[in-house]
Write a structure and sequence with these properties.
Layout lengths: L35 H14 L7 H17 L7 E6 L2 H11 L5 E5 L2 H10 L9 E4 L16 E5 L1 E2 L4 E2 L13 E5 L16 E4 L11 E6 L1 H11 L11 H8 L10 H17 L2 H21 L3 E3 L11 E6 L5 H10 L15 E5 L6 H19 L1
Parallel strand pairs: 2-3, 2-4, 4-7, 7-8
Antiparallel strand pairs: 1-9, 5-6, 8-9, 10-11, 11-12
Amino acid sequence: MQSSHPVSQEPLNIQIPSNLLPADGRFASGPSKVRPEAVAGLAEIADGYLGTSHRKPGVKDIVGRLRSGMTSLFELPDGWEVVLGNGGTTLFWDAAAFGLIEQQTQHLSFGEFSGKFASGVAKVPFLNDPQIISSDYGSHPNPVAEASVDMYCLTHNETTTGVTMPLVRPAGADPDSLVAVDATSAAGAIAWDPSQVDCYYFAPQKVLASDGGLWFALCSPAALERIERIDASDRWIPPGLSLQTAVNNSVKNQTYNTPALATIYLTLHQVEWINSGGGLDFAAGRSQAMSDHIYTWAQASGFATPFVEDPSMRSPVVATVDFDDSVNADEIANALRANGVLDTDGYRKLGRNQLRIACFPAIELADIQALTACIDYVVEALTT
């Protein structure tokens, strides 16, 4: 359903009644809503935390709590390590190209971000050309075991399209091959089985309700062994992209160079909030309830439909909704923004008449319910 409407240059003059508006109008798919309690917590510790050395106990203790909290949240088996470093997921792709891939990868490409990793690996001169398996946007392909592949690159949740996929090690794959998963918009709100994965990496600005600027990689013993072996080889690895250096620092509860301390604390606050609420099941349940509401609402409306046709592929954390030609989704987003309801726009490069709505655990179901009521109000105002 491609958009045939021009983008409005100014928000429409539609005043949504205050009793319909959500209490918090942040619905961006990243950076996500940061819980006010986390900001208040950061303010409380700021004097003894912000502006202090990341190699001293005040910061290292926070990093240690965060690594321990993630181990609990994801129920990591013995021998796994929570590794962190500066930069986001895009930087981790570069680090993986130097320090995790031996010769050839297989990538599943079904959205903007899953495709970017594949295109980046294709330009690395010392690696073989990657295998790329693609599917139409709104669906996902499946990995296929190949003898030459030493790392299968999956995406747990494609943020651009609102598609999620199960994480399953390819049947018949070489037992020495790795499964690496981009989990940036999934980590902390979609369940997964560590036995099927070797490296589960993400940035914290989505489900984990923090800012960007850090990457985390949950690494199995097999992934750690691969990192160590490549690091000891004659391959040149830039120090700032060395995964072995990141591992060595992480086990000391620090990073190779100075991190964003506010980001670390906000991530810790969210992880501990999720764990105190019941862990991954708690967070996943919140997201599922919100996305279920949006998909049910869209199917019941006379003007919208879920973009992802197969219910089993619909993301619980990023809901994408198409609108028919009677309504301009960009005008809806502009009208919502004028009323303080933010960042519901569809992904720009997808080019569809669509809204994209985050359902991260930090968001409240009541606010999602208010959002759909606001959309109904705006659509009625646009069409009458």
